[in-house]
Amino acid sequence: MPITVNIEKVRPIIKEKLRAERKPLLEAQDVLYIKAQEVGEDTTAIVAEKQRLRDITNTVDSMTTLDELKAATCKVTE
Question: Count of domains in the chain?
Answer without folding.
Answer: 1
